[in-house]
Amino acid sequence: MTRSLIEQVLQVAGPKAINLRLSDALYADGPLLAWLKYGQGIDALVSLPEDRLLYQDLKGLADGRLLDWTHHRYVRTIQGHKQVREVEVTAAGALTSWEGFTEAAARYGRADASLWACLIHDVTTAELAAEAPRALVSTRSFADGFAALQAYRPRWHIEDDTYRELKEGWGLEQQRWGRDFAAALGRTTLTCLAFNTAQVYRLQAGERLAGMAIRRLRRQRQRELGSAPAVLYVAGCYGVFSLEEVLNVLG
Fold it and tell me: Which residues pair with 119 in a beta bridge?
């Protein structure tokens, strides 16, 4: 989500519309986090790549036994299947080894800005335990690493259960997208439309529509809409009306 889109959401829904922004590693951008926190009053919880200095510092503290690990079990559901996961987590606050963030925060008058981060080590299986722990970084201080994990889970749910179906099933990520605003807006609009359409068809009413196809649906509605219905787009909304109804309204 671009800054302009966030500004649009805040303008339409109010300054408190977004409380916590969950993002993947693509948005692990220091100036962006500072802008969200100190420019818009929005906290962020972001996946932190392993090649970042902040990750290395946090892992160094953990490897040096300067941080305590805690063990947790929880149940997650992926595509309708429940799985028991076991994780070990640790966390630290007052972290400043991210110059991009601290320098940007200073421009908002926050020379004392710092970050909170946690490590999440999946130990469900020996194979997973051999992998490096994941990290999350936030402008908000959580009670502990497991609380941050629980807060971030909706982001993984979207990626694993829903958006991945769109990406892999319909090849959205295989398309060549431009990087200008128009291309970003078009891609976001297409993704939202595809996502919302998929959610509609998961409902009972949507399942009935899915089995009808376009022509059968048209025949079913022809009596009320007429043989030549009109589709009107006004102020970002649309409606389907009978042509006679439209002509009566327009005089």
Answer: 90, 135
